[in-house]
Every structure is written in C-alpha cells, then in structure tokens.
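WARN  no MSA supplied for this record, continuing single-sequence
INFO  ligand: flavin-adenine dinucleotide
INFO  echoing inputs
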Amino acid sequence: MTDVVKILKQALAEHQVLLGEDVKERYEHIWRMDQPLDALAVLLPSSTEEMSQILQICNKYNQPVVLHGGLTNLVGNTITDKEEIVISTERMNKIEEIDQHARTISVQCGVILEEVQNAVKPYELLFPLNFGAKGSAQIGGIISTNAGGLRVFKYGMTRNLVLGLEVVLADGTILSSMKKIIKDNSGYDLKQLFIGSEGTLGIVTKAVLKLVEAPKSRVSAMVGLKDYDSVVSFLKYMDRGTAGTLSGFELMWNNTYKTLTTEPAVVKPPIPHDYPYYVLLECLGSNQDNDLQRLEKLLETALEKNIIIDAAIASTEADLQWFWTIREDVRVMLTHFKYDQQFDISIPIPLIGEVANKITAALNQLDVVQTVFTFGHVADGNVHFVVGKSELNETTTEQINDIVYSPLKGLGGSVSAEHGIGVDKKKFLKLCRSDSEIATMKLLKKSLDPKNILNRGKIITIE
Ligand SMILES: Cc1cc2nc3c(=O)[nH]c(=O)nc-3n(C[C@H](O)[C@H](O)[C@H](O)COP(=O)(O)OP(=O)(O)OC[C@H]3O[C@@H](n4cnc5c(N)ncnc54)[C@H](O)[C@@H]3O)c2cc1C
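INFO  complex generated
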C-alpha cells in the first residue's frame, strides 16, 4: 500500500476505500465489465467535504486520480492507469431539493439521469435531457461531458440546463455557486469552464438543474425526401410552422432507414424504402388534437409544394413508440458486420448532405469497408457515421479516421459533436481547434491543476 493510500484510509471510513480484490471486481466502462479494474484504490466519498479532503491529500502527494461516474462515456474518458486512484461518485446520490416555482432541481453529482427525470414528473415538470444511457449516466458525468441527446434543438445541451454548480478544485478548494437564477452577469461565468471539461479542471459535486413545464402533447411523423436541399428547406418550413414546438428532427440516409426497419430490426417501415432521405420529426406542445391537426396540414402543404414526397403521422401512443424505436434501436446496424468504427461529428447544416456523401463515397473505396450508415440530429448539425468493416487493423482504422475527420478542417465543424475528446479523439483535436485555442486550454489546465492530478492525459497532454 502506498503512503498516500494509507493516509486516505485514515481520513475516510473503512467502507469508503476499496483495495485489492475489491478493486478488481470493478471495471472502467459499462461495456467492459469483464475486464477487472486495475488501480491503486477506489474511493467512495459521500459528501463535498469528503471530496475536498481526498483532493487535498492527493494534491499534496502528487497522486493522480480518475473520476468514475456512470461509466457510459464513448471516447475512453474513464480509462484508468494502474498508478491512479479512482474516485467513484456513486454514493453522492442525493436529490437535495425540487423547487417547482423556481423550476429547478438540486442534486449531488452521482444522481442518475433517469432518477432526475422521474423525480420531477409528479410536479408536471421536465428535465429535457434524454439519451440512451439515461439509466446509468450520472449528473456529474453528464455535466463533465456536456451531454446532448435527442432534443438539443429545442432545449440545448447540458450547458444550457445548468444554473448552479459546485466544484472541488484539484487542491481541494470548494467552489460553490448553487444558484437558481438564469441571469447572472456578475463577472466570469465560472461554471461553464467545468461543463464539458471531462473532469480535467475540477470535480463536479453538486448542481442546480433547470426544469421546464412538461409538454402536454407529443406528435411525430416519418417523412420521405428526394434530396438533401429538401431536408434543409423542410427543417426551416417545419420550424416556422410549428410555433417553437419542434423538438426533434432526426435524419436517416436511405440505407440506414432500410436497415433499421428490416429484420433483424423488430419494427416495420411506416413509409416505403424508396426515398433517399428520411426525417423523423417530433413536436412537443400543449394540445394533442390541435397539434395533430396542425401537423397534418403542414405535411399536406409540404407534399403539395413538393418539399417532401411521402409522410406518415404517428397518431397514437403505439405509433409514437413504433416510430421512435426505429431511430433509437441503432444497435441493429452493428449486427451486420464484425467490426465497426463510429463517428459523432458536427458540420454546418447546409453542408451536411454534400460532405457526408463525399465521405461515404471515399469510405466505400476501401476494400475493408462493408457498409456506411449515416444518420444524425441534423437540426443541430450533428452527423453520425457507423462504418462496418471486415477486419480490424491499425492502418485501415487510421485511413477511415482520416477520411471522416480531414474534411472538417476549414469547414467550421467539430470532430466531437457530443461525446467529447477523452483519449480516443485527442489527436484529432487540432482539426477543429486552433493552436491558440489548444494553448489556452493548456493554460487553464495548468492554472487550475498545476500538479496535473485530475484525469491526467484526457483531452490534452501537459508536458
Ligand atoms: C447507449 C449510449 C447512448 C449514449 N447517447 C449519448 C447521446 O445521445 N448524447 C451524448 O452526449 N452522449 C451519449 N452517450 C455518452 C454518455 O452517456 C455521456 O457521455 C454521459 O454524459 C457520461 O456520463 P457518466 O456518468 O456515464 O460519466 P462517465 O462515463 O463515468 O465519465 C465521463 C467523463 O466525466 C468525468 N466525470 C464523471 N463524473 C464526474 C464528476 N462528478 N466531476 C468531474 N468529472 C466527472 C469522467 O472522469 C469522464 O472523463 C451515450 C452512451 C451510451 C452508452
């Protein structure tokens, strides 16, 4: 046992310090539960004060730590070195307050997203963030990765939903600003520094999250379109016509839609497989009948004007379930090949069609590539590629990375729309961030964590 672990054992209760076999029973990602965690120790604080105490000790002894939240990240953010100490936030799981008039919920960092969603439902309020990992992802991890999801277009990313934040800095300083207010121009907005910084600048211990009134109606439609220009026109047309209620606008390229609605997929296609592009749209409003009627009218006119070529409306709860299963059951794609590479990039909306088609054409030139599935939250400029391949080797992995990422340079896009940089995307950061931006990131890291103990080597390397 190292000296620092001995000191931590004295400072914390016995059950809060896991060692040896207890460490090996844990893992560093929910998809690698079969691989035992290798770390000096796992610490389980339950309060901000304990977190502060841990960091004071680790900082004093130059001990690197890795934060483990729900372990659902997608870019290697929680990869752990055997010389590191893991701080797991699972015991910091208290919902402290729901304020239905300020429309806020105050939570500790280890509260799981789905628990927040469920806790506010009885008040007819909504925490609008939603994505596939909601049953495991914790608020601290979500804030640290600035997670997005399916309704960013209407409600924004996590960044837009955090009103107050409490953070513990590398030296143990507690920086608390648990405010419930939306407007606060009293100097630098410090909380934004920590949102999306992947635990490299400070540890999020508590947050005040913004809630909205829960919508009373939800309507959806699956729409077929002839080309990408029509997709862009249709987005503007729908946004204008739905009085701020448009909440989802998910684009699928033809082969993606076909695959998601053909066995082994469990759902059938609501409209035929004949169209180049498909949009699954959603509006959240206040009156189901009125919203359905408005949607029907808008789609009729769009058909007459030739903006779209086919549409099916989800008019019942069962239809809604059916249509959204198509979009959410993306793992069906992975059953079609042995190996895959997945991408989460941003491109300005008008350029998406052309750039995505060029990337797909270039990928299809490679022998190793079997299929390219393209889809995305197009109203946010976010495109996903799932590249299916017949073999796994470093050369082709790099070739594929290069084909997808290199067009982003100069387009004002991003190599990471939602998932962050972690370690997997570190070398591509320079494709979407200038030298001076990266230098400023390093300056911030060195100022806030001079001994480089927090999530060392994630996002940027400090020499
Ligand atoms: C099926 C699936 C679907 C997903 N869909 C989406 C999606 O649509 N949009 C999206 O944006 N992401 C998505 N993700 C990615 C993932 O869910 C998010 O990145 C999530 O926000 C991570 O939360 P977590 O608690 O699991 O954090 P972890 O994975 O545990 O950690 C993520 C990062 O945050 C750090 N961290 C954790 N807790 C803290 C803390 N309290 N303070 C400081 N740093 C901390 C970690 O060290 C790490 O760097 C998906 C993941 C899966 C598995």
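The chain is about 30% helix and 20% strand.
INFO  checksum written, moving to next record
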